[in-house]
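WARN no homologs supplied; continuing
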Amino acid sequence: MAEAKNDVRRFRTATQWGVYELTVRDGAIVEVAGIDADPSPAPMGDVLLDGVQHNTRIHRPAIRKSWLERKDRGRERRGTEAFINVPWDEALELAANELHRVKESYGNKAIFAGSYGWASAGRFHHAQSQLHRFINLIGGCTRAMNSYSTAAAQVILPHVVAPWSHMELHQTSWQDVIEHSDLVVAFGGLPLRNTQVAYGGITEHNSARDMRQASERGVTFCNISPLQQDMPGWLNAQTLMPRPGTDVALMLGLAYVLEHESLLDRGFLHSHCEGYARFRDYLLGHSDGVAKTPEWAAQLADVDAAALVQLARRMAAERTFITAAWSLQRADHGEQPYWMVVTLAAMLGQIGMPGGGFGFGYAAEGFIGSNHRRFNWATLSKGRNPAAFAIPVARIADMLLNPGLEIEYDGQKITYPDTRLIYWAGGNPFHHHQDLNRLVRAWRKPDTVIVNEPWWTPTAQWADIVFPATTAQERQDLCASSHDNYAHFMEQALPVQGQARSDHEIFAGLAAQLGIYDAFTEGRSERQWLQKLWQDSQLRAVEQGFELPDFEQFVGAGQYKLPPRDRREYWLADFRADPQGHPLTTPSGKLELYSQRIESFGYEDCPAHATWLEPYEWLGGEAATAYPLHLLSPQPSRRLHSQLDQSAYSQAGKIAGKEILTMHPQAAADRGINEGDIVKVFNQRGACLAGVMLDAGMRADVVTLPTGAWFKPSDPNLENSLELNGNPNVLTRDQGTSKLAQGPSAHTCLVEVVTQT
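OK structure emitted
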């Protein structure tokens, strides 16, 4: 609720990195503060201070010059030309006519509706929902499925244990770890920087508190990562620092010890698992002639074999919780480490026990491991996609470059359409996607690219028609996530910048042009839509045995806290107690350590059980001769992905405007590089500039460069030109994890670094 005092007003706003109170003076944000409900507000809230009203805002509809003049549409000049401002009516008519032309000439599959869902924490002003609702009403589109964050996990885990969406909501809570665990083994660590964010929004940042409480109770931690910084120093964790991409080999070494020394739970493997005997043959080398001994694993991972033996024995002797970061499955054969985590946990036989078993992504987002009530808030209906067609999200560039190509995906065959129009609203593919130089070539293939965007991001700069969109601070909305204990009402805090319109208003304008206005809007205003979403949620609350307050009462209070959960849930406890009465959704109803279904697909890059497969690039391979450093591209600490990278808070974490490359002091010294230097990071796919920071707490053959710097090629007319801001995705390879998931494999990437002259 807004409070007025002279010329100062205060508003509540919700973002994907927290809920804040904004102090607004003369129409500008002058202070950002956490709310009382948040014990540890994310400092990245400061991106709002100048980011929302930054000089990079788009104020009027804009059309790329060649496209507007209709000489030849100039697709090859996309990303290089100036834009011409036009009135809203003209821009809407041009876009609507183009949508109609493509639909009538090529069919709806030729329209790709792209969105990545992180654009707003609001339930109504959610760009992806608005885009798909509109596109579905004109006949549908090709859309993307799965996510850049967890694509491999989303596909492999339903075959092995359970759907990803179920796991996200029901995994073991930090409270269970605090009360019952003795040891937490974290593959990929527990980097707190990632816990600032959560899709759909987050009210309470509790991850650091929970980890501290676990440590204080006596839980010990083991960080298995090339980076000590991937786990807070105050946890005093044991650290194993393997080569990136070798986690499966390391886990196999642990599993060998369990099997060889009979430290495993054979009863659990028999009663709750399918196919352990087939996996055992592989583990012991009976099927391929290679025993997966600790010595074998240690050689591949470049760690101490004795340390693996000791860790395996300890895992068997104590209540052990195994977790793996999302980063592990964003790599070549990314399905395998997650499958192997389940296998290793199954061998220990603690799955379904309080504080035991496994879970994924415990520092990937702030809600994972929280003990919140599970409540499914109402969302804007997107309707049905009549085209009924989707591709894996990481294959967008591949689709644009190869119309008609058939690819494998999860036992299916998908044929790429001939994409003639891209409509993008929400997200920045020039951040998320791999091998951005390849994406540039692909992005120039369609006839037309339409973008809704508040700022001149790379995605806007590489469009033909750009509609200026409002930010969350320039409209009303309801923030309520199934991962959160709170709902918040967001008042409009700022005046609309220029001629910007909300995504809903933009699509309503296009709907009017195409004769579907009534169907799209249902005759409701913004406020009426928010009321409807709240009323629909009220009905769902009654089904769960509680009541939500009246809408106006909720608006007046500004927030609502859900009642506590009725009882504590333990991940897979029912299955453990009665596997026949509470079977899993896998074909066997059990944990599938060997999958006949996956075997039937015949994929050489995804066998029927967890397997060590050599990555296409790694420090133990031939490519390391030319490119001897393994690049990891973690999430940044001063922004969410690429959002508001132009803000002062984000820019303060850079060196001379370049993203920071972190190196080991020895690796830097070997190359004559000093801290603060500007360097060129390169491989066979591209090159970018970065500023150097040194860190002795990492492997000397590993470097890190966070994602999210706005893509800025030195010469957009020149293919593979030097990228100036430090975007690591000019270096990553655009290849699917395997034929099973076709997820992104950004963390399989080798580079070299030299001083920039």
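Residues 407 and 414 are 5 Å apart (CA to CA).
OK
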